Amino acid sequence: MYLSHPVRRMRDDPLDDEVAALRVEPADDDARTALESRVESLGGSLERELQFGGIVVSLAEPAVSDLCELDGIERIETVDTLGY
């Protein structure tokens, strides 16, 4: 799985009071379903679907490390990095 530098920073050294807006790319429909469940269990939300299969999610920075452990994810990047 590819993690952008800002996502690796959030995973390794999260800020307690910050919310992360992330673009997540699941590998397939099963991974997308698992992503929805994981984000909801972490207290986050799915904000919108993007063209070509990406999904914008938001969740507290301390939960980013748990999201990064999910199988079936091809990449996680910050929304701001990609200019969405």
Automatic annotation (TrEMBL):
InterPro entries: Peptidase_inhib_put_dom. It comes from the Archaea. It holds the Pfam family Peptidase_inhib_put. Residues 1-83 form the Putative peptidase inhibitor domain. This is Putative peptidase inhibitor domain-containing protein. It comes from Haloferax volcanii (strain ATCC 29605 / DSM 3757 / JCM 8879 / NBRC 14742 / NCIMB 2012 / VKM B-1768 / DS2).
